[in-house]
Design a protein that fits this description.
With 364 residues, the protein is mainly α. Helices cover 65% and strands 2% of the residues. It is a multi-pass membrane protein.
Length: 364
């Protein structure tokens, strides 16, 4: 418990205090944001705003997590390290994209397929490691079963070991690419993705802590609730790393809210998407991510629908612009209004996800 509290406090203080230092550094390095020429006209004033803020968040998370572990005397775990691996790995993919943008002086960096290839490399490496490193109880960080609020009775190994593990890696890669790109698409307004991800990470703090209290290997668990227990490796450490990331985002949001002094960039949005999906996989709540990351689903879904409709109708559009937050901007909503209302939607979806997680345990 001490490590959890320390992690969120330390990472918050780090990003809150040091983000202005990084803003000055990024301006000196000329790491400024480039704006889509076809975007809302109000966004053109944001050109040159410091970007790659994900660097601050990653450093703040690492600082909060490891220093909290050092002070509390707790050991790091494989599960916690896997979340950080996913976060840093996808952050590097995003950094490459951002760096190419500032170097080329344009709003496009890596090509679409190149970015996906980078995401797949990280996803496959994560997937392979996540089904190894069994602890003394025989638990690996992830499993080959599809999960909702816990593992379902649908193990991908049904097709045999070779095909089953291939299906597991495909499933994991789909989750990683989908979630990281969903966060990337959500990151279009000041503070939108940052605030929504704080809510998602808060959900995983609650889920991880509850799984720790209701662990099948908790000797204090009573007979009455033993059949409801969770077979999750390192649930408390998953809550700690989620708290460290959330803390880094809380401090960063002070400087990222409208009018933003710094943007996440792809460095931040891909890293955050990676962290969220890693937490979903390792807490065995993969399908629950549809609710906890519901805003990402809406944003990505609006782009898919817009593009499909555009092709089918040969040039017609459903939304004025996608992702959907731009649609409401073009309808005349103030940017802050869109952000706050989307935060409310994200919060309601996260509450529904956590509520459903608890109800499954309660009625089990």
């Amino acid at each position: 418990m001490l490590a959890l509290l320390l992690a969120v406090v330390l990472s918050t203080v780090f990003s809150l205090a040091l983000t202005p230092v990084f803003v000055k550094l990024f301006h000196k390095l000329q790491w400024g944001q480039f704006i889509r020429s076809d975007g809302p006209q109000s966004h053109h004033s944001k050109r040159g705003t410091a970007t790659m803020g994900g660097i601050v968040i990653i450093l703040g998370t690492l600082f909060g997590y490891f220093v909290a572990k050092l002070i509390s005397g707790d050991s790091v775990t494989v599960s916690g390290m896997l979340v950080l691996f996913m976060m840093v790995g996808l952050g590097l993919v995003g950094f490459t994209d951002d760096f190419l943008k500032v170097r080329k002086q344009q709003s496009l960096g890596l090509g679409g397929w190149s970015k996906i290839a980078g995401q797949l490399v990280v996803a496959v490496a994560f997937g392979i490691m996540a089904i190894n490193f069994a602890n003394s109880n025989g638990l690996t960080p992830a499993s080959t079963a599809i999960s909702f609020t816990r593992d379902l009775n649908f193990d991908l190994i049904f097709a045999g070991p070779f095909v089953g593990y291939a299906l597991y890696l495909i499933w994991t890669s789909f989750l990683v690419v989908g979630t990281s790109n969903g966060v990337n698409l959500t990151d279009g307004l000041d503070g939108l993705a940052t605030g929504a991800t704080i809510l998602a990470l808060g959900s995983y703090v609650i889920i991880g802590f509850w799984q720790f209290n209701q662990s099948c290997f908790n000797p204090a668990l009573t007979q009455e609730v033993a059949h409801k227990c969770y077979s999750v490796r390192d649930p408390l450490d998953l809550a700690i790393v989620a708290a460290a990331i959330a803390g880094a985002l809380i401090g960063f949001l002070w400087w990222n809210t409208s009018p933003a002094d710094i943007f996440l960039g792809d460095t931040g949005s891909l890293a955050l998407g990676g962290a969220v999906v890693a937490l979903a996989i390792l807490t065995h709540t993969e399908l629950l991510l549809i609710l906890i990351g519901g805003l990402y689903v809406i944003e990505a879904g609006s782009v898919i629908i817009q593009r499909a409709y555009f092709k089918i109708t040969h040039g017609k559009r459903i939304f004025l612009m996608s992702p959907i937050h731009h649609h409401f901007e073009l309808k005349g909503w103030a940017e802050v209004t869109v952000v706050v209302r989307f935060w409310i939607i994200a919060g309601l979806l996260c509450a529904a996800g956590v509520g459903l997680f608890y109800l499954e345990w309660f009625y089990r």
